[in-house]
Specification:
mainly alpha; two-stranded antiparallel sheet; globular
């Protein structure tokens, strides 16, 4: 799903500025989406038919979000958090337990919140990197100290928070695996 999402996103607005042709991006998107749906079908056949709505909704959200369908209505912070944070957590739990419990609701909400935090940090950093031609100015502290502003200075704490968030989630995931062993 991730390869498809990035290929569609790149094809739509070239945010990553790759040299991959539109045709190549379309092929990557089609192949990876087909593979993901095929895995979902395997899950439907081997685990439970009840996985089918998750496969369908996941494919829909992926396409609607990344192609900015319906006037971009699905291309928002809410749908990013729902589609890339909450929905995968809910789907993976369902595929393993075939039921919903209070813990999965809490995990789903936590994944939604973490995705909102990631988005709120990454959006201004992407704007600095991809769209900012120049940035000038100074910040005057209460003691009179002047701090020169630059894209790097403004991006640094956001990047640091994103790295800490990513590392913490890896550690949390590892802890959950260890607890389950």
């Amino acid at each position: 799903m991730g390869v498809c999402a990035h290929a569609l996103d790149e094809r739509t607005g070239r945010p990553l500025r790759t040299g991959i042709s539109d045709r190549g991006l379309a092929a990557l998107a089609a192949a990876s989406l087909t593979a993901a749906v095929a895995l979902g079908v395997v899950g439907i056949v081997t685990v439970s038919w009840s996985i089918a709505p998750f496969v369908a909704v996941g494919a829909f959200i992926l396409i609607a979000y990344n192609l900015e369908l319906f006037g971009g209505w699905f291309h928002s912070d809410f749908w990013f958090a729902a589609g890339w944070g909450a929905f995968p957590a809910l789907t993976s739990y369902w595929a393993n337990a075939l039921r919903l419990d209070v813990p999965v609701v809490l995990v789903t909400l936590a994944c939604f919140g973490l995705s909102v935090a990631q988005r709120r940090l990454s959006t201004p950093v992407r704007t600095l990197r991809r769209k900012t031609a120049t940035l000038t100015g100074t910040q005057t502290l209460q003691d009179g100290t002047l701090v020169e502003l630059s894209p790097a200075r403004i991006a640094a704490p956001l990047d640091g928070a994103l790295r800490a968030l990513a590392a913490s989630l890896v550690l949390l995931s590892a802890a959950v695996v260890v607890v389950r062993l």
